[in-house]
Structures are given as C-alpha cells and as structure tokens.
Design a protein that fits this description.
The chain is α+β, with helices and mostly antiparallel strands and 187 residues long. It has three helices and ten strands. The protein folds into two domains: 146 residues, Metallo-dependent phosphatases (Purple Acid Phosphatase, chain A, domain 2), CATH 3.60.21; 32 residues, no CATH class. Helices cover 17% and strands 29% of the residues. The protein has a five-stranded mixed beta sheet with strand order 3-4-6-5-7, with no helix packed on it. A three-stranded antiparallel beta sheet has the order 8-9-10, with no helix packed on it. A two-stranded antiparallel ribbon has the order 1-2.
Length: 187
Amino acid sequence: MQMFHGVPTLPSHTAAGGRRTVVLAHHPLEAGGLSGSHFTWQDHLFPLTTFVPWLWLPMPVFGSLTVAGRAAFANQQFEMAPRYRNLKAAMARAFDPVPPLVWAAGHDHSLQVIRLPGKSRSWNLISGAGGGAKSVTPVREIADTVFCRSVPGYMRIAFETNGPARLAVVATPAPGRTETIFAVPLD
C-alpha cells in the first residue's frame, strides 16, 4: 500500500478481486445532521428547534449569531472545518479511481442514506443512533439524501451471491421492538 499525504492509497479495484467494498469509519463524508454544517432559515430564526423540535421560539438575532459562531469557530468534527475538508479530499484521493460501494459511519445520532456525488454514486450511510442510543440528534435532507430520520436504529446490508447488495434501515422504537423503515438495493 502506498501513502499519499499521510493517507494510504489503495490499489485498483482489481486488487479487491472485483468485490464490492465497504469502508467503516466514525466520520461520514456528507451528513444532514449536526456535524454536516448545513444551516437553513430555521437555524437563523428558530435556533432552539435544533435541540428541542417543538420549541418554535423566534430568536432571529441569536440564531444568526449562533450560526455565525459555529461557522467561525468550527469544531474539527464538523464538515466546515478545514481539517475535516482535508480529510474528505484525502479519502477521495485514496479511493480514486474506484471508490467503495459504501462509506458507513456513525457520528451523527440519526439514520441517513445519502448518494455521494460523482461518477460512482457510492452510498454514504450514517447510523449513529443504535438501538441503545439514549438521544437522537436532528437531521435534515441535504443534496442527494435518499432517506433520513431522527430515530434510534441501525442499518443492515445483505450481500447476495448473484444479486445486488440490499440495505435495510431498521428503527428500534422501544426495547425489544424493531421495524424496517426503509430498504433499497445498493448496486
């Protein structure tokens, strides 16, 4: 394995024997949750709904200051931070020319299925609200979002021998209770 700016570069797809690859990481490449650094009018006018969805208390000046502060003092864990953007660019180079089928991550406490832009249209899966998660975080649709929900749960991928890989998003609304809330073929 070769190194490029401290990040391993992977050999071509043939080194994987033509198999579909999955990368497991803590940080997602794109996210519609708190780490995604995507702000809307709601963040500016009703900033408390980010943490308490029903608290529609208008606070336009405070909300705009909060958004500006998050942008100016970006936590290194958020997509807007320079180090995070460098990480994303390094990962794109590391998996060039054949990106993985799936980039699976946690970080946000929600369930998100996002198609990554580009020729490959890889899948970016975020499942950071496992069945035991005490709290979920808000999530919103961003470009290329296929599914998102602020509920505890997990994702399951089934790799068929002679067929497409299939994704199931499973919610865990109560202890011992599960329900599939979204499913899609990945290939």
